[in-house]
Hints:
By secondary structure, this protein is α+β, with helices and mostly antiparallel strands. The protein contains 3 helices and 5 strands, in the order E-H-E-H-H-E-E-E. The protein has one domain: Ubiquitin-like (UB roll) (Roll). The chain has helices at about 10, 25-35, 40-45, and strands spanning about 1-5, 20, 55-60, 60-65, 80-85. It has a 5-stranded mixed sheet. Helix 2 crosses helix 3 (about 40-45). The radius of gyration is 13 Å and the shape is globular. The N and C termini lie far apart (about 45 Å).
Amino acid sequence: MATIRFTRNIQRHVECPVREVSGATLGEVLDAYFRDNERARGYVLDEQGKIRQHMVVFIDGELVRDRDGLSDPVESKSIIDVIQALSGGNE
């Protein structure tokens, strides 16, 4: 099973414990994870099920390519990291 983990800054807003989850695609893994944590779904995905702009997801250290369809393949030993993207600006 793939391991999904969320950064500490996300955990400040919604509890997201590390879990091992089955699935062949990112979408399948996220669906399985969010079945038990619906609040996290709304924080990570928008109303259309796409990764929110302020979120970044990596599978085995590689940036997810399909932010809309979540079709990136996941291996049984993959590590999925969900990170809240940080942005800054000029003052």
